[in-house]
Amino acid sequence: MVKLAALVVTTSAIAFAAEPNLMPLPAKYSLGSGRLAIDQNFHASTVGQCGPILVRALDRFAHRLSMQTGIPGQGGPLTSATLEVQCDHASKPIQALGEDESYTLEVDSKQARLNAPNTLGALRGLETFLQLVQQDDEGFAVPVISIQDQPRFPWRGLLLDVCRHWMPIEVVKRTLDGMAAVKMNVFHWHLADDQGFRVESKRFPKLQGMGSDGHYFTQAQVREVIEYARDRGIRVVPEFDIPGHSTSWLVGYPELGTDPGPYQIERHWGIFDPTLDPSKEAVYQFLEKFVGEMAPLFDDQYFHIGGDEVNGKQWTASEHVQAFMKRESLKDIHQFHRYFNRRLQAIVQKHGKRMEGWDEILEPDLPKSIVIQSWRGQKSLNEAVQQGYSGLLSGGYYLDLMQSTEAHYAVDPVDESLGSLTDEQKTRILGGEACMWVEFATHENVDGRIWPRAAAIAERLWSPQSVRNVYSMYTRLDAISRHLETSAGLTHRSAYGAMLQRLAGDDRVEPLRVLADVVEPVKEYTRSSGNPDYTQFTPLNRLVDTVRPESDAGRNLRYSIAAKDWAAVRRTLVLWRDNEALLRPTIERRSLLKEIAPLSTNLSQVAAVGLAALDRIEGRTPEAPTLDASQILRNAAKPVAELLLMAVPGVNALVTISIGGKH
Amino acid sequence: MVKLAALVVTTSAIAFAAEPNLMPLPAKYSLGSGRLAIDQNFHASTVGQCGPILVRALDRFAHRLSMQTGIPGQGGPLTSATLEVQCDHASKPIQALGEDESYTLEVDSKQARLNAPNTLGALRGLETFLQLVQQDDEGFAVPVISIQDQPRFPWRGLLLDVCRHWMPIEVVKRTLDGMAAVKMNVFHWHLADDQGFRVESKRFPKLQGMGSDGHYFTQAQVREVIEYARDRGIRVVPEFDIPGHSTSWLVGYPELGTDPGPYQIERHWGIFDPTLDPSKEAVYQFLEKFVGEMAPLFDDQYFHIGGDEVNGKQWTASEHVQAFMKRESLKDIHQFHRYFNRRLQAIVQKHGKRMEGWDEILEPDLPKSIVIQSWRGQKSLNEAVQQGYSGLLSGGYYLDLMQSTEAHYAVDPVDESLGSLTDEQKTRILGGEACMWVEFATHENVDGRIWPRAAAIAERLWSPQSVRNVYSMYTRLDAISRHLETSAGLTHRSAYGAMLQRLAGDDRVEPLRVLADVVEPVKEYTRSSGNPDYTQFTPLNRLVDTVRPESDAGRNLRYSIAAKDWAAVRRTLVLWRDNEALLRPTIERRSLLKEIAPLSTNLSQVAAVGLAALDRIEGRTPEAPTLDASQILRNAAKPVAELLLMAVPGVNALVTISIGGKH
Fold it and tell me: What is the complex's ipTM, to 2 decimals?
């Protein structure tokens, strides 16, 4: 469980220079004075040879600007270009790792100029421009600014699991829109796992036919997604996770497994026994044809084969596997898995791809062209680059673990506290990927699981390492969260409201929102490890499925305390204390809310404790009778209905201050 | 301007028996005790021959139920059917006016049975079932109920203008979803007007090519919309408004006009001079081919030719028209227009259609098969049916005039206060149509202009005439408004929030929402007549474009006063009084809000007047200094920024009570 006490901030942390509402922050920028008006006459045009991708990007730009401002994108007299976009040449037909993404953006009070070596840089610059649009007291405008920007890392990805719960193409597309808005450039599409095989194979139609419940992407849809991504400067890397995590393959093709089967689509969460069988020659024949079909469909240079979390139980128990291992002098399960990886790598390479896999595939025998994606963390990543491989970091960037944005933001792919790296080794740290595993997410709440937190990870991977002020990050995150919905079409804010309203039924939703705003889901793997009854069919319609991974209200209280803004602290605590009476009738009427009754009581009591402490701090006689503060706070720190009450850390701090302690 | 004083209610009006959250209310129903649980095992199945439309409807039903409950639509063991849908036969391949739409729905605590003579009734019954789903203290459920239902009128329509502002196909589709949810059955698609020609003609491609700014529906999209509508039990009647309202036709084909042109797409609102020229034989040749192309594309039996608002100025001024009229013994412009209608009717009839038109086409010479749509009101409608025509009412149902739901709800197509009608004449009153003209609506705010008010008009046209309790209607409307968003996919609630946030920029939106909740746009034609500078390109991003046509907060205050719920009245007034201080900084920072500064001040002052009155009523010494209440209220009743402050009627009533008067 997350340590709540560690979340308390000090005053010094919240001082920072004003920065533009950009995320990621550019490599270099300088704010001038004045503004460029965005009115009905505003329009953008191109100079140079950027190709059709930029033409389409400018169409989207006009539409999004219209959504941001409410000003129709047509009708004004087209005088001179107001935003002139110039690029030297088009980007590569198939976007490649390491292509130049730099751009400069110069905005003065008359016009703006965006220059980039190629289309990719122009796309990035257009997103910067849209983020800069604000309504001030004269109208909509972009501030006068000069920006020279390029990314720190060439691989800035987001993994979306579409297996544990099905994610329709609309979710994929808006996820890509969100990624583009924060300059992420790799969509890692986790397409096959125990709980679902999500791509149409024409050669092996039982993969999706028996392994997907009918929820899979057709090859036409795959091409549509790749084109959609490419239009936004995003590479698409597919992952087919083998030899473990492969139950869904075996439903239609049990002969590929070690045990004879039959197999059924897995409905629970965890690590399961079914695996492809590396001792069977038929498996490699199958994979040869399968990779041969998928390699041209997914035209990126990289091909992710998973390779994680093989428990080897079926292998250990199998006579024919044991005989095979003996024959091939493979001493243990680990060597047996290595054998599989070497043969798989040869197949992947034969079809023109560079293989990518999780930490577990790391071994000295594979060619250095492969890429290791480290879910285990920087230590594991450092080992990979020290052995000569390229790698990227995902440990610390798992969005499904419900950690604070601050926690993700603090994780850097280059961590030399674990031992120094040579410059050449550092170069082979390609970047990182945020990961969204969806055991506890559906199409309804997935946006709120990814956004806005992924924007801070995007900043970590794009902006200079020195950009680390947390308070600045949160201030800008708040603006980017709105921008992601208004301009990029995500639903993380509106879906929160809709899901809350469903919980409240026909009752007023506001009191429920007050409570929901100050709770967070339990962290890490608490939900899945604490409750083995969760399956793919469990309704995810409870408050824990609705609330945001991180409570702004809880953090704002801590910040207000740090800033000694006692009026704001009091306002918040009174709201919380009085909320119980307003919320209680709704809780009693709605079955889905019954479980949160103690949480609502805790909020009221914790707020009362906080108010008594505040009274002492302000030298007033406490209104409330003497409360057993420490017992209330201890009790309220325990999870209720898989939810944490984020009023506790702030009130803990307040109590400490009120008794003369330092917090 | 609407009379604010008339909006005050009396206590007696708000007493009514509890009714299920249905809109429209069924013809007959009887609530039992107990509930049918909607859990993971719930599913629906069909018996009988309902055809593929019902199969698709059950797919949508499952998805919508899942959206309403958050319970996945798959995975439970399929034991016995929980909702059994039975229909005797499929509805007609092309849905016809007057087809049976009746159904019965029997829900007991074990299962539900929906029976209907045909598919249409089954569709209606499924909507009823979805509206009945509620979360109670045990889970999701439908109450035990017995329903025998059928519509009062066979024509229950909604007109959507897609000309004044372009409405993309997504808007059309979700409008159809909303219509289906409230059992409306005619989508009147206003496709051509001065400001845009919105359908692809292959024979006359300059119609859309030069008359639409590129915003038109392809013929494939038209077919898609018709199929989408048919799946939902909705007929699609196209309107091509001629001979007036036809500027957009003349841009590409000026030779059809009386004046030689050239013509440009009209950008302003109003009644304009350009007309097709009834004296030109080429016009009829053109219309013969045009109707010949459109008649099979739109396969409904009815074809709407508009016919309204011809000012005749070009005709009067034209020598060749005057000569023609003399030759044909047409005494005036009116007879000239009649001549056109007779020839047009012959063309329409030749292509297998029944002609429909607005009041203006009414004349004794046309065959009785035509349908008159009355925008002028019941008097005009009664004249039509007395002359032997069929007709439907739209006067009183114009959603763009920003009237209260109550006002629309009070309008009945059959109004015998204007003179009695025979039963046969009454039968020829086919029903009515709500109309949404979009001079002041875009794809962003159009849902909020139509919904939820159109649901009350749908009830007027479906439910027995005796269903008229306004307080019951508002209570159910509140529930149906949420249902329309959760279950039918409309955006009237989420778009309101998003547009408010855009106005507030990065500031907290809540204080703006408090004010927005208690204002309404000015009524009737005040906006267009008051400001001739409005055009198709004017940004519709102000508060007047954002707020709801009817303020729930304003009405709730009046109801609280009528119920003498002084605690609720005080809570509301305190919130309003104190809002000014919270909202003022945002108003000063945001140019779009500057115009509402006086409105915010007025709200605060009116609330203070109300609080002083309430203090007197409750026998307290007023906190506030003596206010010139009448001057404040008079001042606050004036529109500001095209907005009306709906706090005024309630506070007026409160002041009257406080000085011992009756309100």
Answer: 0.91
